[in-house]
Amino acid sequence: MNFFDKVYEIVRNVPYGSVMSYGQVAHLAGNPRMARQVGWALHVCRPEDHIPWHRIVTKDGCIAERSASLEEESQRILLEREGIAFDEQGRVKKEFFLTWSG
């Protein structure tokens, strides 16, 4: 299984109403220093693969900047529909992060 496939499998298992960071996903995929590649993998995934890409945020709970701000807004909307709350600075509240040891 290549790195992207590992990323997709991990992200598919992030439960509804929860988030993980790019770094958490990279660590679980066996490459803790490849958080940016996690972002790229999610950027190029196909809609028909049904990857819940919107559940992955930065380690401090921010929605990562993208070339199109519309994508950032749609990610926030998708997260809010799952009941995920944001703080005053626009970051996902910590209680929505999956706990993990790593």
Give me the count of strands.
Answer: 2
Number of domains in the coordinates? Answer: 1
Query: Based on the structure given, which CATH architecture is correct?
Result: Orthogonal Bundle
Can you tell me the CATH superfamily?
Winged helix-like DNA-binding domain superfamily/Winged helix DNA-binding domain
Query: Would you tell me the overall average pLDDT?
Result: 91
Radius of gyration equals 13 Å
Describe the structure.
The chain has four helices and two strands. It has helices at 3-12, 22-28, 35-44, 69-81, and strands at residues 20-21, 56-57. The protein has 102 residues and is mainly α. The chain has a two-stranded parallel ribbon. The chain has one domain (3-96): Orthogonal Bundle (Arc Repressor Mutant, subunit A). The longest helix has 13 residues, at 69-81. The model has no long low-confidence stretch (mean pLDDT 91). Keywords: DNA damage. GO terms for molecular function: catalytic activity.
Summarize the structure.
Residues 2-84 form the Methylated-DNA-[protein]-cysteine S-methyltransferase DNA binding domain. This is MGMT family protein. The protein is mainly alpha-helical.
Write the layout of secondary structure elements.
Layout: H1 3-12, E1 20-21, H2 22-28, H3 35-44, E2 56-57, H4 69-81
Parallel strand pairs: 1-2
